[in-house]
Write a structure and sequence with these properties.
- This protein is α/β, with parallel strands linked by helices.
- It contains nine helices and six strands, in the order ααααββαβαβαβαβα.
- A four-stranded parallel β-sheet has the order 4-3-5-6, sandwiched between helices. Strands 1-2 form a two-stranded antiparallel ribbon.
- α4 crosses α5 (84-94).
- The longest helix has 13 residues, at 54-66.
- The protein starts with 19 loop residues before the first helix and ends in a 14-residue tail after the last helix.
């Protein structure tokens, strides 16, 4: 068991303007990791400023600021000015990347074609790889017919995020963009990918790939989430 309290930043009782983590002083609850994990903070800073990660970390922070207009008028005046696809293009340029991987779910193949075009128009080489690459049957995972999306199918192709990772590794991509991979499949991809990556959009079959819709409606249509799921 760790000798520090379990971090619970999401439940911090203080307004963002008052929090210790915002200004290095101010209010903090008893379980605040900024107070109890100072050694880890020092380790994180050392890693983030290392020759290997320093340029990436700096570029990510610079990119964050460029996504807001009105900064010169103060924090209360800032406004958002860029969608995430623009941010990805700008960040890749900032890092000097030439070849991007586009790793997508076949269910978002139309969206992937648009993203591929946007990245290519902006001067990048694009290696796009569908989740069904390889055409391998789900049977190799021990999936029974009744566990398939189509129980009647004699061959249902498995999602193959490990193959997607190996494919973009072989293509020597500088940076990878994920589009709509399933929960767990995205995890397997990141575990096996050689290059850094980011997520353009996650999959939510019910909510049009906008999973926060359920969170925004927690007090109304999704109030059943207040109780443990069966």
């Amino acid at each position: 068991m760790a000798d520090f309290p379990l971090p619970q930043c999401a439940l911090c009782p203080y307004d963002w303007s008052e929090r210790f983590c915002r200004t290095g002083k101010g209010k903090a609850p008893k379980d605040c990791p900024s107070l109890h994990m100072r050694a880890l903070t020092q380790d994180a800073v050392a890693r983030s400023t290392s020759p290997e990660l320093g340029p990436f970390a700096k570029a990510a922070s610079v990119q964050e600021a460029t996504c807001y207009g009105g900064r010169e008028a103060g924090y209360d005046a800032v406004r958002t000015i860029k969608p995430r696809i623009v941010e990805i293009v700008e960040f890749a340029r900032r890092m000097g990347y030439a070849r991007l991987g586009l790793v997508f779910c076949v269910g978002l193949r139309k969206e992937a074609a648009v993203v591929h075009e946007i990245l290519a128009v902006n001067g990048f080489e694009v290696a796009s790889v569908s989740c069904k690459v390889g055409g391998v049957s789900k049977a190799v995972l021990g999936i029974a017919p009744e566990e398939q999306v189509d129980p009647a199918a004699a061959h249902e192709t498995m999602c193959n995020p490990v193959m997607q990772a190996l494919a973009v590794n072989a293509a020597q991509t500088d940076f990878n963009v994920l589009l709509g991979l399933c929960v767990g499949h995205d995890s397997l991809f990141f575990k096996h990918a050689a290059a850094m990556g980011t997520v353009l959009a996650v999959k939510d079959r019910l909510l049009g790939h906008n999973p926060l819709a359920a969170i925004y409606q927690y007090e109304s249509y999704y109030r059943y989430l207040r109780k443990p799921l069966p």
